[in-house]
Write a structure and sequence with these properties.
The structure is a single chain. This protein has 206 residues and is of the alpha/beta class. It is 38% helix and 17% strand. The chain contains 9 helices and 6 strands. A 6-stranded mixed sheet has the order 3-2-4-1-5-6. α3 links the parallel β2 and β3. α2 crosses α3 and α7 packs across α8. The radius of gyration is 16 Å and the shape is globular. The chain starts with a strand and ends with a strand.
Length: 206
């Protein structure tokens, strides 16, 4: 087995004020750094992490910086693990999105919304494709017995778990949630080529 541990970054100020972040360079709050510190201690206790793959956005990079106080593993930063680029919607309040832009609301518009890209941004279908592509590459490059830590964002994690458990994009985003510094574990069997979710959205350490 290879174990893939996917974690979300810690809280940022835009998380706290419920603004769409996309690719904005928003740093962690003090609370977010404390969450990452507790996450690092928990991961060090549970796993012998062999390598770390991370989004290259500011909030993920800062989370990795704190995690490495507890984990001695090489890091590769990769834009494939970024959150969705929300384009011109970046910085808007989450609460105003359904009323102002219902065409992007999965609950209101269903699968069609997943195919729509905001100006200068990307669609959820685009995000899922790049995340799943990198996931498949990661599995192909992994070794039996290895533990790989992936530091990323709420959207990519939900889409990834949806891929593993055969959920469509709407269900993956709407029916799942990810807390700050949540832990998700997937076991990959090299002999059968199958992956299984064994832990999901664990925030007990926070």
């Amino acid at each position: 087995m290879t174990t893939i541990v996917a974690v979300r970054h810690g809280e940022t100020e835009w998380n706290r004020t419920r603004r769409l972040q996309g690719w904005a360079p928003v740093p962690l709050t003090d609370r977010g750094r404390a969450q990452a510190d507790r996450l690092g201690a928990t991961l060090a206790d549970r796993h012998d992490v062999d390598r770390i793959l991370s989004s290259d956005l500011c909030r993920a990079e800062e989370t990795v910086e704190v995690l490495r106080d507890h984990l001695d593993a090489p890091v590769t930063f990769d834009p494939a693990w970024r959150e969705r680029d929300v384009g011109v919607h970046q910085g808007l309040q989450l609460d105003e999105m359904p009323e102002r832009f219902p065409e992007y609301d999965l609950s209101a518009s269903g699968p069609e919304a997943a195919h729509r890209s905001p100006e200068s941004g990307e669609s959820l279908v685009d995000v899922r494709e790049r995340v799943v592509e990198r996931w498949e590459t990661t599995l192909a490059e992994s070794e039996p017995g290895e533990t790989v830590l992936v530091v990323t964002h709420g959207g990519p994690i939900r889409l990834l778990l949806g891929h593993v458990t055969a959920l469509d994009i709407v269900a993956a985003i709407v029916e799942q949630s990810q807390g700050y510094c949540s832990i998700n574990e997937v076991e990959y069997d090299h002999e059968t080529g199958t992956a299984r979710v064994v832990r999901e959205n664990d925030t007990s350490h926070c």
